[in-house]
Amino acid sequence: MNNIYGQTMEELETYLKAQNFPKFYGKEIYTWLYDKKIETIEEASNLSLTLRKKLQEDFSFAKPTILECQKGKEVSKYLFRLADKEHIEAVLMEHDYGLSLCISSQVGCNMGCKFCESGRRKKVRNLEAHEMVLQILEIEKACGKRISHVVIMGIGEPFDNYENITKLIAIINHEKGLHIGARHITVSTCGIVPKIAAFMDFPYQVNLAISLHAPNDALRQEIMPIAKVYSLEELMTALKEYVKKTNRRLTFEYILLDDVNDHEKEAKELVQLLKGMNAYVNLIPYNETTHLQYKRSKPLTIAKFYDILKKNGICVTIRREFGGTISAACGQLRSEKEEI
Ligand code: SAH
Question: What's the half-sphere exposure (Cβ side, CA atoms, 13 Å) at 266?
Fold first, then answer.
């Protein structure tokens, strides 16, 4: 049975029409679900009893449960249990511009990045659109505040779950849905080239972030298996095309790993790779985890790396640190829970 929270407006209207209900009820239903945030459809008092009964019969209204919330100073981490007892996480961050939520897109992940905690567990399944929508909605309810920004950067590779990701964006962007501006939504990918090509034609102005982490094929292949499938040249060609076609600025994420990808050599290679592109680099101090051997770069190395990019005209920022005290590296809370 389809879950009501995974229905795009278009799908809902098609359903209503097929059932001989006026299609404008679609907007009413969205208002009840996302604005009034009802728990059961019985609360939707301006919908006829017949429609409420029909919706109840035809859709599931099930929600994932928040099992645990670890609260830090400006960041809270939520652990969810899904209907099939799998666990996923979402991280809420307070910025001066509003609340931003990092959501998961899969249970486990098949990309196998060597430094990543989530990837230690293989993909079990994709998250359905409703399971992503409900991470946002349930956390809004739990914290009593509006989430203004969403980043799809939690557990999983969003472009390995392309169809559900695009549905999710349509639902949360809708003005009667959570009404999160497209420019406030960011999809982060390790670089699945064919999906980057498809995303160029996706009609929402969302942001794209690329997990680059290395400026040459040899090093990238060492830490990110996806680099063996798509070379940097193929990746950069697709991205240049993406920028040309969409006129949007790209974000490159670059985790700094001690003595792996943080030398002057890589900084200079990165400059060469990105020079002239409409892009900016987000340098990420690595969150060390107990299971993996990688270490965070030293503060001085991070500063040097930053300076080389800056002096060579690359827009660069160092990611503000949030998670240090609350196992915020992707997948850490889930690992603790499941002891794997
Ligand atoms: N699969 C997608 C999205 C999930 S990972 C992607 O690769 O972009 C989100 C980001 O967190 C990626 O840039 C990833 O490389 C990074 N990341 C993974 N483990 C990390 C850690 N321990 N510390 C800091 N960043 C990490």
Answer: 25
Instruction: Report the nearest atom of ligand 1 relative to the CA of 209.
Output: 8
Q: What share of the chain is helix, strand, coil (3-state, %, to 5)?
A: 40, 20, 40
Give the global pTM: 0.94
Is residue 29 located within the same domain as residue 87? no
Q: Which CATH number do you get for residue 19?
A: 1.10.150.530
User: Is 89 considered catalytic here?
Assistant: yes
Q: Looking at the structure, tell me whether residues 174 and 34 fall in a common domain.
A: no
For 13-27, give the DSSP string: HHHHHHTT--TTHHH
Q: Does residue 25 sit in the same domain as residue 148?
A: no
Q: What domain range includes position 166? A: 65-326
| CATH number, domain containing residue 257 | 3.20.20.70
Q: Give the tens place of pLDDT for each residue, 28-66.
A: 999 999 999 999 999 999 999 999 999 999 999 999 999
Residues 13, 89, 128, 131: which is the catalytic one?
A: 89
Number of domains in the chain: 2
What b/e string do you get for 257-269 counting C-beta neighbours within 10 Å, with b at 16 or more? beebbbeeebbeb
Q: Is the CB of 286 under 6 A from ligand 1?
A: yes
Residue with tokens 């997990």: 211
For the chain, give the percent of residues with pLDDT over 90: 90
pLDDT tens digits, one per residue of 273-331:
999 998 999 999 999 988 889 999 999 999 999 999 999 999 999 987 765 545 555 56
Give the mutation target among 100, 330, 334 for probing the ligand 1 site: most ligand atoms within 8 A of CB: 330
Answer for the pair 175, 218: CB distance below 8 angstroms, yes or no.
no
Ligand 1 and 115: CB distance under 6 A: yes
